[in-house]
Amino acid sequence: MFRSLRNWAIVAVLGFCLIPIEPAHAGEGMVAIHRAVTQFVRQHLPANARSSEIAVDVPAASVNFPACTRLQLGYFGYANPFGNQTVAVHCQNPQVWTLYVPVQIRQGSEILIAAHSLSADSILRAGDIAESMANPGELSGAPLHNPREAIGQRLRYGVMAGQPILRSMLQQPDLVHAGQLVTLVAQGDGVRIATTAEAIESGKEGQSILVRNVQSGRVLHAIVMRDGNVRVSF
């Protein structure tokens, strides 16, 4: 009987930590083991993930293990609350056996997707994005959840309609362009002075660029601000 279990190993306890749990009719079949594993995993999920779908991969329902007076369950390896993990189901009495059960956590959340096909270098507008439910753990990168995180950003490469928009896909557009006249703000010690400067380099928010003070001709390093002005400190 045990040889037919294939991907599910029955071995002696190897010393990992086991947490006891007592499901009804423990050890009589896969239904009881499935219920016990599901209960165990849900109890150990973070509060914000308690509503996640738990997929438990036990052997076929026709497979039965020797009856067990008390099942003990524990994580085998890393317990990933948002992805794949393995639970060890162990019996000590009257016969020793351990079953390793693969488990997948599927937590759905609202993410941003492309409302239609978009080409590389597109600046995202409100009509370019939509919302959809997805499991972040199944994505290849960090998704966006708030439209404000995407609107005004530039796509590094093209995306298809319905494709999740990931942070790695976005590139902030230049707020200042080389040759543009900008307001240069100098501030420090409670003093704020504004004058006109010419941008020598293009730059994004938070980036340091070279600018030339129009009045003095002095070249300075200045930080690009969100409003398109540049700032130096003294």
List keywords for this structure.
single chain; 234 residues; mainly beta; Type Iii Antifreeze Protein Isoform Hplc 12; SH3 type barrels; 3 domains; five-stranded antiparallel β-sheet; 1 helix; 14 strands; disordered N terminus
Question: Which secondary structure elements does this structure contain, and how are they paired or packed?
Answer:
Layout: E1 19-20, H1 30-43, E2 53-56, E3 71-75, E4 84-91, E5 97-106, E6 109-114, E7 129-134, E8 154-155, E9 170-171, E10 181-188, E11 191-199, E12 208-213, E13 219-224, E14 230-233
Parallel strand pairs: 10-14
Antiparallel strand pairs: 1-3, 2-5, 3-4, 4-5, 6-7, 8-9, 10-11, 11-12, 12-13, 13-14
What oligomerization state is this entry in?
single chain
Gyration radius, in Å: 29 Å
Helix content: under 10%
Unreliable runs: 1-28
User: Largest sheet, order of strands side by side?
Assistant: 1-3-4-5-2
What best-fitting shape do the alpha-carbon axes yield? elongated
What structural class do you assign from the helix and strand content? mainly beta
Tally of individual domains? 3
H/E element sequence:
EHEEEEEEEEEEEEE
Number of strands: 14
What is the count of DSSP helices, taking H or I runs of 4+ residues? Answer: 1
Strand content: 25-35%
> Span between N and C termini?
80 Å
The major pleated sheet works out as: 5 strands, antiparallel
Report mean pLDDT, rounded to a whole number. 81
